Amino acid sequence: MIQRIQTIYLFVSAVLSAVALCMPVGHFYTDTAVSRLTALSVIASDAAVDYTPWPLCVLLSVSVLLPFVAVFLYKKRMRQIKVTAWGSVALLLFILAAVVYVYSLSPSYGSFTPSWAVCLPFISLICNWLAIRGIRKDEKLVRSYNTIR
Q1: Which residues of the chain register pLDDT less than 70?
Q2: pLDDT for 148
Q3: CA 118 to CA 20: how far, in whole Å?
Q4: Measuring CA to CA, which residue among 89, 130, 125 is closest to residue 14?
Q5: Lower CB count within 10 Å: N or C terminus of the chain?
Q6: Angle (deg, nearest 10), helices 5-22 and 77-109
Q7: pLDDT at 59
Q8: Which phi and psi angles does 51 have, rounded to 5°?
């Protein structure tokens, strides 16, 4: 069952989360300086690094790891659904934490402009949802074959 469509959804979800992990979340602008918010740190214009948002990095790392784990749980579909759901929870927590960090850091770093990579966790959530639908469909199919016997 590793050749099913949900494997592609899980792989795309993991790749999108990995790209979001490498890309900046956005930039803080003031009249004289530009600071960059990444998943691991805030890099000020004078190259000072503040590691305050490290939970963003942890949550995105978990959301990269869990879809890869879920791909290899194809024989245990219910566990695969749970692992994929936990990956979705990690993505939702990342989005929530990113919003909290932006609002808490805005007074000290200036106005915030998100980068295009902010949409990647949302697309990854959609891929996780599609994967869960495919896994449930397979589980339903297998159970229907068991009732015929």
Answers
A1: 1-2, 148-149
A2: 64
A3: 7
A4: 125
A5: C
A6: 20
A7: 93
A8: -90, 30
